[in-house]
Amino acid sequence: MAMWRVEQLLRKATEALNASGVQYAVVGGNAIAAWVATVDPDAVRATKDVDILARRSDLPRMAEALKSIGMEQTEVFGVVVFIDPDDPSPKRGVHFVAANERVRPHYMHPAPNVTEVTKDIAPYPVVSLSALIGMKLQSGRPIDIAHLVDMKSVGLITPDLASKLPPDLRTKLAEVPEPDTH
C-alpha cells in the first residue's frame, strides 16, 4: 500500500509540475528506482517520499502547481516540504531540493542543475545518472549507501562513469561495499 501511495504522489506531483511549465527533475529514491528499473525492475527498492529538484526561483510556481493537487507548503528543519493536510507527515511529502545549491552546508558540491536530466527512462525528467550518484555519495546516509550498492549490483556504476566524478567523490565511491552476490 505504501509503494502505491508514493507512486500516486509521484505521478500527481510530476503531472502538476509538467502542466505548470516548471523545469524540474526527480531525484532521491524515485530517481534511483527509475535508473535501476532500466536494468532490472525486480531490483527496485521502495521509497516513502518524493524528492524534486528545481530552481529556487521556481519555488512559488512549484508551490502553486502542488497546491492544485492538494499539497500545502511547509518547512521542516530548514527543508521545504509539500504535505497532504489529511496525512501531514513530512516523511511522506514532496521534498524540494534547490538546484545549484548545496543541500547541506558541509557538502562540497552543489545539487545538480535542472538541465542535468534524462527524459527517456520515466514519464518525468530524472536527474542524470552521474549527478544522482554524486548526490548519493555526498549524502552518505545508510539508505544512500544501500542505493549505491543497488546501482552497483545492476551494473549502473561503471569504471568510466566513476572516473568522471570529482576526486573526493571517487574516494567515497571506493568505500561503498560491493553487492552481495550470494
Task: Indicate the topology.
Layout: H1 2-20, E1 24-27, H2 28-37, E2 50-54, H3 59-67, E3 72-76, E4 79-83, E5 94-98, E6 117-118, E7 126-127, H4 129-139, H5 142-153, H6 159-163, H7 167-174
Parallel strand pairs: 2-5
Antiparallel strand pairs: 1-2, 3-4, 4-5, 6-7
One letter per element, helices H and strands E, the order comes to HEHEHEEEEEHHHH
Radius of gyration in whole Å, from Cα? 16 Å
Sketch the major β-sheet: 5 strands, mixed
Structural class: alpha+beta
Strand content: 15-25%
- Which strand order does the major sheet show? 1-2-5-4-3
Number of strands: 7
Span from first to last CA?
Answer: 29 Å
| Poorly predicted ranges | none
- Gross morphology: globular
Arithmetic mean pLDDT: 94
Q: Helical content, roughly?
A: 40-55%
Number of helices: 7
Task: Report what the structure shows.
With about 180 residues, the protein is α+β, with helices and mostly antiparallel strands. It is about 40% helix and about 15% strand. It has seven helices and seven strands, in the order αβαβαβββββαααα. A five-stranded mixed sheet has the order 1-2-5-4-3. Strands 6-7 form a two-stranded antiparallel sheet. A hairpin with a 2-residue loop joins strand 3 (about 70-75) and strand 4 (about 80-85). Helix 2 (about 30-35) packs across helix 4 and helix 4 packs antiparallel against helix 5 (about 140-155). The longest helix has 19 residues, at about 1-20. The two termini are about 30 Å apart.
Key features of this structure:
7 helices, five-stranded mixed β-sheet, 182 residues, alpha+beta
